[in-house]
Amino acid sequence: MLSSIFLSLFMSFNLHAQSTIKIDGSSTVFPITEAMAEEFQTSKKGAVRVTVGISGTGGGFKKFCRGETDVQDASRPISLSEMESCRKAGVKYVELPIAYDAIVVAVNLKNDWMTEAAVPDLKKMWSPEAQGKVTQWDQVNAQWPKEKLKLFGAGSDSGTFDFFTEAIVGKAKSSRGDYTASEDDNTLVMGVANDRFALGYLPLAYYEANKAKLRALPVKNAEASAKVKSVLPSRETVENATYYLARPIFIYVSEASLKKPEVREFTEFYLKNAAEIVPSVKYVALPAKAYTMSLEHAKKNRVGSIFGGKEPIGMKIEDLLKREASM
Amino acid sequence: MSTAVLQSERAQVLDMRANIRRRQWVDLAFGVAGLLALLFALLTLLALIIDLAMTGVPRLSWEFFTNFPSRFPERAGILSAWVGSFAIMITTACCAIPLGIAAGVYLEEYASKNWLTGLIELNIINLAGIPSITFGLMALGLFVYQFQLGQSILTAGLTLGLLVLPIIIVTTREAIRTVPNSIREAAYALGASRWQMVWDHLLPYSSGGILTGVIISLSRAIGETAPLITVGALTFIAFLPHPPVMAEFPFLSFQWLKDPFTVMPIQMFNWVSRPQPEFHVNAAATGVILLVMTLVMNGIAIWIRYRFRQRLKW
Which of B79, B89, B143, B265 fits a disulfide with B225 by CB distance 3.0 to 4.6 angstroms? Predict the structure, then answer.
């Protein structure tokens, strides 16, 4: 009698399992996926449960390639080594660009000497060779003050760090180490806002929420002396790809999970509502055409990545669409 | 007596008085320094609490407790976070309290004093000082992957249970030690077995101290984040664990133990790292609730200790 009660107690462990969609990955993509999960669950009236974690793009891909998650949030394309571990585990995936994110180079409001950020100047400040050597503003440009250069940037686990280093230094993850690094972008905002001689880089959404405290520098991908117009970060310049430090961000959906109706439904829901929800969480949406194209890819289960493990730097949306179409 | 002797005695007395005065000054100076140190700590804490309360308290409302997290800061709430914290606390209590008390009683009353017991004692004291993230890593390997418990409330409860176990063992032993030996001898003299002595005398008399330790250890566990992130606490959850009660036989369900979870410190951390200042207000409000919960738990611990001290007289 007693044992039968225990048995049934134990059995109830596995009774009525609701379907759950597991998502993990980048903290940059999190606000978008969180909003999608919120809306999707509301629309399904609780029949499907969605969980979203923040393990970072790299940490998330580890889980994704072990088959532990259904959807992966990624602030950069899948890397070659991650492709390899996914392939070994037999995990195939559909790559879906879902929005644009931009990185802003910001200085203190009282900084009156820097009017634009030329990529070669930024490289002088941020390259690994600068470590311990370039410590004063006048070492970058002789006309700038003889004051200590204080740098603030993303921590080395974030996709923002990977992208910035590749775009500025020329090699992903190659950066000086003697700067204030934080995974919490609000720390960077505070750091730059409180020090006249500070410079930092942070995601566009954080700049937009703190416009009164920081000044964004227009960026130009040329020597400071070159006669090229520098471009301020904004929704428009990110959309028309004139702003240099912008990149697409993605979700990756496991092909095996796409066989589950709720995951397929969620993916389609994501792409159909992205144009509306992405701007509401302060990101720049892709053109409508990109979403319809991605929807086609998801429906046809087109697996693989179009980036070959490289960062898409300075890629216009048309290029992205062309690459997507040629897949 | 000659005047010379008298004078030298007088000088001695004066000397002594000066000495005493100097010592009193040193005493006073030390007292002031101690008070300043105390004020420094207290004022810093007070400033932090006031700052937190001023930002967070206006945000508190009934909806804040009954809403799920949301992308709209004014609609977002901590329902899944506090339910998660609560469920994990229950799991932690259920596994750590019986184990901790039993281990404490065994070490204090049953174990013979030899090198093995000494080694165990040393290890328990060491365990109490290990950083919590280490427990998280161990739990990730053991509970999540080895035992296949997944990233569930059960895993989290067991992890925090292990984390607070040493505290419960140590406080249990200290509480038992305060029971005078005469009580034990009296029980034995009346023919009680060791178990009867422990159950009928030792545990009731020391339960004040034991409960205090239990509550303080739980109030530590409720603020823990690092080990839970390592075992896979999630950030966005907009559903509740399965209910523990069912309409049909066997009425009790343990399905909730297998559910994914989030806890209040993690929710708070997520909100702090958002760009919009409205989310920072939500984080402050969550902080106020955590602070109040910890204060209440510690308050209960103090009250229990006071009650038991009053009742017991030997």
Answer: B265
